[in-house]
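Can anyone check this?
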Amino acid sequence: MARTYKQHILWEPWESSGYKSSSGAIKSGPGRVGGIIIITDGTNDATVILRDGGSSGTQKVYGYCAGSDVTNTVMLPPPGVRFDTDIYLSLSGTNATVIVLYK
């Protein structure tokens, strides 16, 4: 039985960027982001901005984690946020790391 487009988007597994501790490209080419996991060092705040079109591209996803919270998970509603050009990570915060879930 063939899946519909909607079922295909929802059921397909997300890729993991792995731990990222600096700004840079997550994926070249179009894609979708389904969530981010922000991790702090327990003291310093962390900010994540995902952009479409490189380091000066359009801001599509924003995430924040207070240092004392240690982690913050931001899950986006299906089918995720679409990026037409690429997925670029801007990460700020001392000793901050992030995991991006994307397709």
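Reply from J.R.: I decoded it. The chain has one helix and nine strands.
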